[in-house]
Specification:
The complex is a heterotrimer of chains A (about 300), B (about 290) and C (about 325). By secondary structure, chain A is of the alpha/beta class. Chain A contains eleven helices and twelve strands. Helix content of chain A is about 30%, strand content about 25%. An eight-stranded mixed beta sheet of chain A has the order 6-7-8-3-9-10-12-11, with helices on both faces. A four-stranded antiparallel beta sheet of chain A has the order 2-1-4-5, with helices on one face. In chain A, strand 7, helix 7 and strand 8 form a beta-alpha-beta unit. In chain C, helix 5 packs parallel to helix 6. Helices cover about 25% and strands about 25% of the residues of chain C. Chains B and C meet through loops of B and strand 1 of C.
Chain lengths: ~300, ~290, ~325
Amino acid sequence: MLTLERVTKIYRIGTLGMQKLTAVADVSFEIGEKEIVALIGESGSGKSTIGKMILRLVRPTFGTIRFEGKDIFALQGSAVKDYYRKVQGVFQDPFASYNPIFKADRIFTMIWEEFFPHISRKEWNQKLEDALQAVGLNPSDVLGKYPHQLSGGQLQRFLIARALLLDIRLLVADEIISMLDASTRIDVLNLLADLRNRGLSILFITHDLSLGYYISDRSIVLYKGRIVETGPTERIFAHPLHPYTEMLLASVPQIEHKWAARSYRVEQNTAHSTSGCVYYSRCPIAQSICAQRPPALVEVADGHWVACHMRS
Amino acid sequence: MLEASAPIRYEFLYFTMRNVKFRIGLFILLFFIAAALIFPLFARYDPNAYVGPAGHPPSPEFWFGTTTFGQDVFSQFAHGLRSTLIVGLIGGGIGTLLGILIGLTAGYRGGLLDEILNMFTNIVLVLPTLAVLIIIAAYLTVRGILVEAIFIGCTSWPWAARAIRAQTLSLRVREFVDLARMSGRGSLKIMLTEVAPNMLSYLFMTFILQFGGAVLNAATLDFIGLGPTQGMSLGLMMNNAVLWAALPLGMWWWLIPPGAAITAIVGALYVMNVGLDEVFNPKLRKL
Amino acid sequence: MGLRVENLRIYYHTLRGYVRALDGVTFSVADGEIMGLAGESGCGKTTLGHSLIHLKPPMTYIEGRVFLDGRELPIWDWNQMNEFRFRHVSLIPQYAMNALNPTRKIGRMIAELLAARGVDYREVLPELKRRLDLVQLSHEVLGMYPIELSGGMRQRVVMVISTLLNPSLLIADEITSALDVSTQKAVCEMIVEFRNRGFVRSTIFITHDMSVLYQISDSIAVMYAGQMVEKAPTETIFRSPRHPYTRMLIAALPRVGVRYREERLRGIPGTPPQLLKPPPGCRFRERCPVAFDRCQEPPPFVEVEPNHFVACWREI
C-alpha cells in the first residue's frame, strides 16, 4: 500500500548550510494492508523524519514515497486532500498538537470544514460522537474543553478520533504513548491494535522495544538513519542478529530479570567514519572490513534482513 | 497541577488588569486620550489665529498663556494632542500591519520568498529616513498629518517584521501547525488562524511599541520642520517654541505642555509594554 | 541514620486556592538505600523530591519534619537550607542536562559552584578526575562547553557534579526519562555504582517507569494523588504488591515477551482526582475495583509486614 524507495533526507546545518546531516539514508520498506509495522530507533535514528516524510510534512532529498502506486510528492490540489483523507498522523507530545489558545475540539471542526463542508451540523455531531465513542471517550465529558483541561491520554485519543473521522487507511503513530502515564498508555496502545480490525495499517514509531513487541507484526530497526535489521517482530526479538539490536534488547528494563552486570559501552564523542558501517565505533564484534565499507541489507531467513558483515 | 476552569484568555485579562505597570501606563494613556477628545471642546480659539496679547503667561483668559504671536497655547495643545495621537494610531497601525504581513509571510513560507522579503526588509531598515523625507517634502508642498502618519508607518515596519518573522519561524514547526496542514488547510488560512492568534500578545506589544515610536517620530519630524504644513501637533508646537526662542525669553508655558505630553504618552506606552511582558511571560508573572 | 520524613505537607498556592500536592507523607530511607519513587504525573513525586531541597513559591510549607542523619533539615527556610544544599542534599532535576550554563566551560562552572560553597576547586580536582574516569568521560570535558557534549554525556557530567561533595542524600528526578535505552541503562548503573562506592549514602530515584526501578532500587514507594500508598522492598513490590493501585500499575507494564494478540494488558480506568479539593477518604476509591464502605474514611499508612507499608483498608 505504502512504499518507500531508497529514501534519503539530508539537512543542511551550520552557518550558511555548509555542513550536511544525513538524517535518513537509503531507506526502503513497505507497509501492507492491515499491517502494524514498528519503526524502532533511538534519538537521532531518523525515525521521526521518516514519519514526517510519509505525512508530506518534510520532503525527501532523494527517493520516492508511493501510496497506492502514486508518488505522494507529485500530488497536486485536491489529490493532496484525498491523500490526507487516507493517511493521517498522531505525534508524541499531546499538548503540542493543540493550539493552546483554542478549545481542543477545534481539530474536529477543521476536519469538518475542510473535508465535509456539505454535511449538516446534526449529521456531523453524530459522526463525531461515533468516532469519540470508538476511541473510548464520552463526548459530553470531553467536548468544549481547552487542551489543558484534558489529560494527555484523552488528547491522544482525540487525535486518533480525528483520524477516524476520515476514510483512513494508514496511521503514522510517532511515539504517541511515550509521554503518557503507565495507567493510560496501555489502553491507547490497545486502541491502536483494535483499529487494525477496522482495516487500518499503522506505522508505529517508538524507541521502546517492549511496546513495539506488544503491538507490531513486523519491525524495522534503525540506527543513524539506516535500516540495520528488519523482519517479523517475533523473529527479530527471539533471534536478533545485528549487534545493535542485541544491545537494545539487553538494555530494555524488564521486570522478569535484571540487567546483565556492567556490560555498557557508552557513546563517546567520536565522529563516525562515513566509509564503513555506521555502528562500527560502538560495535563489540567489529572487524577491519566493517571500517572499510558499509554492509548491505541481506536476507538471512524468510523476511528477516540484516545489515552486518559479521552476521549475514 | 492547576485545574483551571476559566479559559486562558480571561486569565490573561485578569493578570493584565492586576499588573501595576500596565495599569499605570493605561491610566496615563487614557487620560491623554480623554484629553484629546474633550480639550478641543474647551478650546475657544483657532490654534493658528492671533487672538491675544503676545507672550502672555497663563491666565484665566488664556489657560496655558499665549505665544510670541498671541496664539492661544491651550487651543494649540488641545488640537496638537489630538493630531499627535492620530498620527501615533495611524502610523503605528500601518507599521504593525505591514510588519505582520511581511514577517508572517516570510517566516511561514520560507525559501526564496523569505530571502527576497528579508532583503527588502533590510533595505528599508537602513534607508535614510530623513533624506527620503526631504525629497518627499520637496514634491509635496502641502502636507497634512495623514501623509505624515502614512510615511512614518511605511518606514517603521522593518524591525517589527523581523521580530514577527522570528516568532513565526518558531511557531511554524510546532505540531499543531503540522496537524492543520494534514487537515488540508491552505497556507494563508493556517497563517491567519493558527500562527497569528498565538502571537496575539506579541502583536499587541508590537503595536504599542509602534504607537509610541510613531508619536516620537512625528514629534522629531515636526521639530526639525519636516512636519505637516498645516494643522497643529505637539511636535510643531515645540518646533515653533524653539524657533522663536521661547526658553531664552522665559516663555516656559509654550514649551513645557507639548514636551511633557509627548514624554508622558511615550513613557506610558513603554511602561505598558513592560507590564504586558510580565503578563505574557509566565516566568515574570507574580502570583 | 539516613533520611526520615514525617507527615510532610506541601501545598501549591494558586489563584483558586491551595493545591494539596503533598498531603501528609511519612517514610524513611536507610543509609545506602536507593529508594525508587513511582507514580503517575501529578501524584506529587517531584514535589516531594524538590521540597526536600528547593522549597520555594508557589510551593508552600504547611507542616511536617525532615531529619537527615539525625539533624533536622529546615526545609521551610531557604537561607538556612543553603548550608545543606549540595553538601548534604543534592538534586539532579529532570532537565539538568539542558540547564548547564552554555557560556561557561564545564571546569570553570564547577569551580564557581564549589567556590560558592567555600570549597577549593584545585583540592577537589584529583577526585573530580577520578570520577570522570569512572563515568567514562575524558578529562578534556572540563575544558569544553556544554554544547560540545551529547545529551547522555551532559547527564553524566551533571551526575558527577551533584555528587562531588559526597552528599548524604541524592535526589534524582526523572533523570533517565529523556534518554535512549542504552544511555538509560548506563546512567542507572552509575547511580548504583555511586552508592556502592559511598559517593552518596541514600538515594531517592524518582521515575514514572516502574521497570527501571526494578533494575536499580532497593525499595519502592508508590505515590497516588499526593499521598503514599505503598512502600516495600523492590522484590516485594513486584512479587506481592498489596495496594490495588500498585497491582494495577504493574499489570499494565508492557514487557518483551507479551504480545497483544496473546495477552491483552489493561490500563487503569479513570483519572486521578484533582487536588484542589480532594475527595474525602481513600483517594484511589473511584478507580479501585475492590473499594468498599470503609474507603469513605482515609486509610492509614501502616506497616503490614516488616518494611512493608500499605494504605488500604482491605490490607489492614
